[in-house]
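Sample pair:
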Amino acid sequence: MIKMILIPVLLLAGSLFSLLAAIGVIRFPDIYTRMHAATKAPAFGILLLQTAAAIHFSTLYAVAISLMVIIFIFLTAPVASHIISRVAHLLGTPKWDKTVIDELENDPDVSIPEKISGSRTKQS
């Protein structure tokens, strides 16, 4: 009886988080806030969806696969987001006008957009 209520609730909540992430990617103003929307909410949405799948199938195999998917997403999504954001900062991608703080602005390892843009050559 509990499964009949819990599974649809988890599926709806997971779908809602994924939908909110998609809306955030479309609506947010710059790459940094879009990156936040593209990693945080979908990871939680996938957690809820995989939990619903594991509960629905209730086999050791289904639970193991769901757990591996959850671990993979939670390990790779933040790392990928971090790397993409660093590269965007390195390339000098403009920030939103209302950005208050840029912690990488004075970092000697990251803030070198003039070196990258100066090394490009125009092809005729």
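The helical segments are 2-27, 31-57, 60-90, 113-119.
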